[in-house]
Amino acid sequence: PVLAASKKDDGSYNFDGVFEKMRPLFDEADYVIGNLEFPLAGEDVGFSDSFYDFNAPQEFAEAAKRAGIDLTSTVNNHTLDRGGEGMLNTVRALDAMGFSNVGVNLPEKERPEAFYFELDGVKYAVVAYTYTTNKQRSKLKYSRKCCHSNYCIR
Questions:
Q1: Comparing 61 with 109, which gets the higher pLDDT?
Q2: pTM for the full model?
């Protein structure tokens, strides 16, 4: 229902309404960390059509960023819902829009194992882990370089 309700006449999406009631809470915070519970793998692999196998348009992340989320985790049980390429496409989409993220590393871009930031002279480190994913990782052909040590496909 959210996907259909957020689709505009030109075929794009606007998810600002999803965050409407949360935005005032985010505005009160110094820093907001969220969990991206689905990949942004692209329309060509199909958006979510089942309850347990997710994929969303990147406009969702754009709306989350506009709402005030500063950092998002990309690692959880749905990380591989659209496979290894979907996982990597998610991080590439977030990076392209300037949305800070932690959890998955790209083979073409080295990152530290944690995301570091400072507020009022206090340094913070955020790491993202998952115990498992809903898809079998053994079928993927990605090396350790494709991910953080927080979440590695071996």
A1: 61
A2: 0.85
